[in-house]
Amino acid sequence: MIVYGIPNCNTVKKALDWLKLHNIEFEFHDFKKKGITAEKLTEWCNTFGWEAVLNRKGLTWKKLTKDEQIAIDNQDKAISYMINNTSAIKRPIIEKNNKAVLISFQEDSYAETLG
């Protein structure tokens, strides 16, 4: 299992704490340091929808002008933006058996999916 995120994100910290508490082994992929590929972002967008993968609540998004935000209006533009601004990726994203299964952190969803 791979957990994708950035270590200083509170949501990622909650997810990692939950995984450790439940003795679930995982590898952590820090996409600030290791980056992320367009192929991986495409997989996630195809699984969750690009609008779910793009983090519109964070500072990275809020620093954009209204016109810049409006211009990111499809999956290709969102992926291009997220590759260059990894903080704009919703996190964490968890892959199990090479398939994205969870995005963000909700304890109920984690218990149900990773139980």
Automatic annotation (TrEMBL):
Pfam families membership: ArsC (PF03960)
Domain of life of the source: Bacteria
Gene3D superfamilies: Glutaredoxin (3.40.30.10)
Record PROSITE patterns: ARSC (PS51353)
Protein family: Belongs to the ArsC family.
Protein's name according to its UniProt entry: Spx/MgsR family RNA polymerase-binding regulatory protein
